[in-house]
Design a protein that fits this description.
alpha+beta
Length: 70
């Protein structure tokens, strides 16, 4: 799943995977100048990324959280 997320965000970021008690958390580290590319207008790109990854996680019966951090 990490590979899919890295492919979606065009390998311009670093993706860290943290396994917590209730979910798998992916922290997408984005440089400040690239944040706009990842977030998109009104957050639509970020929301689409989250929706896609969550649906893949649901198929595998896992709760997935995607966070975008600088």
């Amino acid at each position: 799943m990490k590979e899919i997320l890295e492919t979606i965000v065009l390998n311009i970021v670093e993706v860290l995977e943290k396994i917590e008690e209730t979910a798998i958390v992916y922290e997408v580290k984005v440089e400040k100048e690239d944040m706009g590319k990842i977030i998109g207008k009104q957050g639509k790109v970020a929301q689409a990324i989250r929706t896609l990854i969550k649906s893949i996680g649901a198929k595998e019966k896992k709760k997935i959280v995607v966070k975008f951090v600088e």
